[in-house]
Amino acid sequence: MARMHVQSWQETYRGLMAGEVLDDPEFITTRETFWTAALCDERYARNRTAVALQNCRVIGIAMSGPPQDADASWAVQLYVLYLLKAHQGSGVARMLLEAVLAPEESAGSWVADQNPRGQAFYRKHGFRPDQASESHAGLRAIRMVRHPLAQPV
Q: Where is the N-acetyltransferase domain (predicted)?
């Protein structure tokens, strides 16, 4: 999972983030530490994680959990949704999203501002920008939020 996570960042963010970040020899170790905690630490017991495999190889990952944004007006935060470039447009990202977010759940996610394909994907699934933004490692992200319509009684 850590290797796929790093590879997807390298494919998606090359030219948008500093090469020192993407090519840091410790990047995989950092992601291994992240995934070990996300999957094993009791603090993350309420998170939902999904993995997409092809021929026993990880090609996509997703993770959601309780929101940590102080101003969250949604029930679930989508923290991770990454797919190897070769599998984008195949429907796998939609399956990963559906595995970690129920259709009726309101949700928030941070998306790279310079990732129009990612933003289009989220728009297709009901997310809209809410005007919040932040920067990490030189990459600006916008927050997108989904508030499904209330179901008729």
A: 1-149
- The model's pTM is 0.90
What domains can you pick out in the chain, each with its CATH number? Answer: 2-146 (3.40.630.30)
Indicate the residue type of 58.
V
Q: Are the C-beta atoms of residues 72 and 109 closer than 8 Å to each other?
A: no
For 95-151, the three-class secondary structure string (H helix, E strand, C coil) is HHHHHHCCCCCCEEEEEECCCHHHHHHHHHCCCEEEEEEEEECCEEEEEEEECCCCC
Q: Which helix (H) or strand (E) holds 2?
A: helix 2-13
Q: Do residues 112 and 140 make contact, with C-beta atoms less than 8 angstroms apart?
A: yes
Question: Buried b vs exposed e over 122-132: b needs ≥16 C-beta within 10 Å?
Answer: beebbbeeeee
Over residues 91-118, the pLDDT tens digits come to 999 999 999 999 999 999 999 999 999 9
